[in-house]
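INPUT
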Amino acid sequence: MNFDPIRTLRSRTVVLPQANIDTDQIVPARFLTTTTRAGLGKALFYDWRYDEDGRAKNSSVFNGVNPATHRILVAGPNFGCGSSREHAPWALHDFGFRAVASSDIADIFKSNALKNGLLPVAVDPATHQRLLNSPGREVTIDLERLTLSLDDGATAAFAVEPFARRCLLDGVDPLGHLQRHMPAIEAYEVRQSTAPDSEPR
Amino acid sequence: MEPAPRSLLDKLWARHVVVEETPEAPAVLYIDLHLVHEVTSPQAFAALEERGLKVRRPDKTLATLDHSTPTKPAGADGKIPYADKETERQVAQLIANCEKHRIRLLGMDDPMRGIVHVIGPELGATQPGRTIVCGDSHTSTHGAFGALAFGIGTTEAGHVLATQCLLQRKPKSMRVVFDGACPRGVGAKDMALAFIATIGADGGQGYAVEFAGPAVEALSMDARMTLCNMSIEAGARSGMIAPDETTFAYLKSREFAPNGAHWERAVGEWRAFASDPGAHFDCEVRIDAAGLKPMITYGVSPDAALPVDAVAPRPANENARLAHDYMKFAEDRPMTEALVDRVFIGSCTNSRLSDLREAAAVMRGRKVNPRVIVLVVPGSHMVKRAAEAEALDRVFVEAGAEWREPGCSMCIAMNGDKGEPGELVVSTSNRNFIGRQGKGVRTVLASPATAAASAIEGRIADPRKYLGGGAS
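OUTPUT
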């Protein structure tokens, strides 16, 4: 784990209102040839941000976005659908995002995001619509209270899988957690006769 | 008291729980088979090395090269024509990782190499009752055998390499029943697209889907894999079908399948992996298979699917408008009027022998429209050899299509196989996302028969007229 724990996040939003933004949009497949996880911020939404010649598109909502002050991405429903590529949350995090808010977020992306210091926040449709309607507004996300608050004081609740939340808040390491269960894993293998070299394969 | 009836998911889950889930922590779930490919694994192996860990069960890990490998054969000098240095380096990295950790790798010269979701079943490593994961969302394919199979991220792949387990919460269950029988010219791909259009691209979020009903039971294993493969396009991480005689006949005598006395015992155990009558599902969907037609997509999400003989719809909202502007179908005009530039027959969805037979049945004795480039990419070397033994390769080549080496090819367009901006590609793959098959490429998802018919006509075409009977 090489990211900072998240407790509260107060930041401005970048809004991409489209539904079904898939991980091929977030990181086009041609950037998946990397063998490391670093530096993928450059590839983030590449074809939305840059033209054929690699120049920033005038139409891109990322123009003028300061990653230090705009750390919350607001997106249309079913964000992160498609491929399981973890490059998607790596790229979002490397660019500077620390949370993605939507009305619903695709399962594999959500699972990957939670392991990479990027908080997926699914809010009710009304709050989602307000977020979509006002790009750049300041939003506070409180992982301890599980609330997202707008700058006018309106507050919405969201859910995060409790273990993933603890990992983010307290820096609990999921692999370490799994390893502490090694005696149970070994006992399972004996019970199922699937210990190393015990079964025909 | 009778034990409560259990679903296939319930049974698969119970069989693999090492530590039960609690409100505070997910279950520790045991993984029987971890499939690995070159694109999503390098960082998982690196994470292992950073912690000084070993691959705990290399005997439950199987690797192949598929995503970034070229589909053009090696040159006379034996040099493999990689698209660029990066893809070549990625392949070299997996070879090195597998050597170091003693993982069986189906390398470039291995006669069994192929797409990860094709080779697992071919080797018999995909079996009923197993848990199967891979850093690839189409891992749902393996559920066709009555396995709990789902795609994972690279961090999770590292967890499996290190512990052979994952932290998971049990998904909700959805049963999708296809009633009746598919009409001629309608197959698993059409069933999949109809299902996704019915529940939407996020309709399966949080669910494991079990496909059932007479139209599902009638499917071959190849076709069942097609159906389960597309579960993720409805947002469901896994799709599954209870194993039956079709499943057992497919697996018998495969390399990793149990043999001798083990076989009978295994089949006996496998039969139990079916939903009990009266099992609870959190959601049930029924689809009338008899009413289905060949399906194609018209938008940029797999749920934007309609019968091939439909007219292109007017966009109903802003999202549909964006998709419409990209795809450029003429509103209210038959979609069969749209000119096709390229056809791709392949991918983990539709690259198996029965898929190639289906395409060849349409193309046999006919010529590809001269304006269309057609790529036929078998899913594995085993499929390639079997197709060549039936001279399917000659059917394709004589029709004017290119017959290639196995791999993911134009499904993900990482290996140099791709369309050009603006081209309309009729593709048997699984995703019509913007730019998926090359920048600016407009993808129309379809069955092998529909893709082949479109190649012949140079326009999107209804395959039923080439198959006799059933045409409406």
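end of record. The mean pLDDT of chain B is 97.
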